[in-house]
Amino acid sequence: MIQDRMKKIQDIQHSVEMRKRNTEEEKSHSVEVFTALIRSIERCQTEVVEMLEQKQKAAEKQAEDLIKELEQEITELKRRNSELEQISHTEDHLHLLQIDPSLYSPINSKNWTEISINTHVSMDTLNRALTRLKDTLHQKLGQTVLRRMQQYAVDVTLDPDTANPYLILSADGKQVRCGDIRQKLPNKPERFDTCVRVLGKKGFSSGRFYFEVQVKGKTDWYLGVVRESINRKGSITPNPVNGFWTVCLRNGNEYKACEDPLVSLCVRVKPQKVGVFVDYEEGLVSFYDVESSSHIYSFTGQSFTQTLFPYFNPCLNNKGKNSTPLIITPVSYN
Asked: Quick one: pLDDT at residue 53?
């Protein structure tokens, strides 16, 4: 009993140290995030000021040109007025008009009553700047968060002992696709016998981990993590109750989170590479579009008690339409 209690004290002290280290990391991460956001706001402010100054200069130039044109017309009108004054004091009007025919020709002038300088500053400039700022902040925040996740990258290799007999794995264990012929493989307890699924070799029972998978060119796929005890035989619906934390693409454009019931996902662009992040202690599984650094979906508030394994389902090849493999790619830090 004494040894058990001393061991418990060590565990508590270790947990406190881990919490302290994680807190320092999160503080550093927060500073990085807000520093990036402040810089983006400052750049946007500079752009707005520059745009307003440019518009002011354009208005001043317009006013200068209009005033110059008005002065030219005034000069011409004065000239005619002076000459007409001379005509009014002579009897030979016809002779003077023959000398200067412009006196009775119309002046090529604008309708000045319809011309003015806009004194109002358009809110469109500010609105456009705020929209760009919102997009920039969203992008910067996404990039910063993704870089944070990528720090926990792990080397994932497919486990051939779990692969459904229809699946074809690359020699390096980094690619998987569905073939047309069922291979003759030993029916091991860990092998999926019905659904075209395969797991990663290494499981994780604590901490954080992250990996990326190329899904480019596919019309259907499932990705995520599963608990070790999931049923490998027969068909089973992927959802958290059954030990699956996954998202999927179906029919080329239908993105779903495999909750119960399914949750439809709205993605701006079709992801070409998906990042999967897990925080075991926090009960978090998140998915990211790597290229756009945008968040796809998160399972939150989960309670993990078993080892979790990376999960891959390339789906049926659909007569060659979905023959492109899922590819586990090295993490390239953005």
From this structure: 83
